């Protein structure tokens, strides 16, 4: 019934409804306007994400999502020869997988708003499977694909590093986000959405506000305002 | 695709995705298992809720929700002669409206898990439109309807008052919930769900865990485990 916004990604998306989470904040912002559905898969890289495309975004859906955030790369960037190497995906393959994801989403709904989000930076003191520099290469690749395909993007890797002490302020364990880190994702994503027709402020409420209901004749407001 | 759990109610439901909110916590618990959809309408009483039934829960839906929380009464209990009297609904009419809501939901899906939640208690020092005693009458009425119709229920009004200092601990403004108050709702609702087939722990994940994926042959896990 309501437009749907899908959050597609790895654990940073899966955990986005914990206290202070960016997914919960988006849901709150789109309250009575759009449904936010979380499709986060802990540990997944873009190779495994491809297997989910037809499952999560069937091409024959009569009501495909109006927007999707695509937030992979933190696992793809795990280094060979270290503890998480089974998640590693070479950079060119990562970029190509992002292209495939975006193409599928466009096929699903040609007007879908697609926002690619780069992986966050890495605090190497607490995460031994990754380097910040290597993850930066994936972030750069993600932004390049967004530009190439005319998609929206959030350069989280760069944005977070603009703030002194980002390592502890934004990262809970060197990779996953603190509530403050979640706040950054929320602000960046909502600022992308606000540039578009999906600006929450401009979307209509699904039913009358309380102030529009005349208690003596409530029918009228519901006849006029129920979308 | 995934089973849907709907949260139907007034502002206490609408605000349930703010930081620490009970709706966000439910979404996190059902991550990769069920979608939680918020249908909260600030200021609404059960009279106005009735206008939304066919809109939110169409009878011809091919995939109706598997569970719905029904959380009204805080506004119905607003007293006549005080500032929020336009929201007032007489107690017997409130009970009858809850019956109508429950019957519609059962018609929508005969196996739907329906949980009625009573309004929270009121801190009269900070909310002048209500008394705690009057709201207690609505809470009692809500529990009676649940028993009468064989529905699940959460007696939030009683539960919260078991804790010393509930007024400030659980209520932000005398009526709406603090993060601690949200925690109580979450714990009570999840404990109801845990008694049923919708226990999150027993519901299957929608796709393989990372640990089930063999990086050298990922197809296999997806063929076996994608629901």
UniProtKB/TrEMBL annotation, chains A, B:
Keywords for this protein: Hydrolase, Lipid degradation, Lipid metabolism
Stored Gene3D superfamilies: SGNH hydrolase
One MF term in the entry's GO annotations: hydrolase activity, acting on ester bonds
Record-level GO BP terms: lipid catabolic process
Pfam families: Lipase_GDSL
Region listing for Disordered, in residue ranges: 208-227
CDD domains tied to this protein: Isoamyl_acetate_hydrolase_like
SUPFAM superfamilies for the chain: SGNH hydrolase
Entry keyword Signal: no
Transmembrane segments: none
Superkingdom of the organism of origin: Eukaryota
Protein name: GDSL esterase/lipase At5g62930-like
Organism: Punica granatum (Pomegranate)
Originating gene: LOC116187752
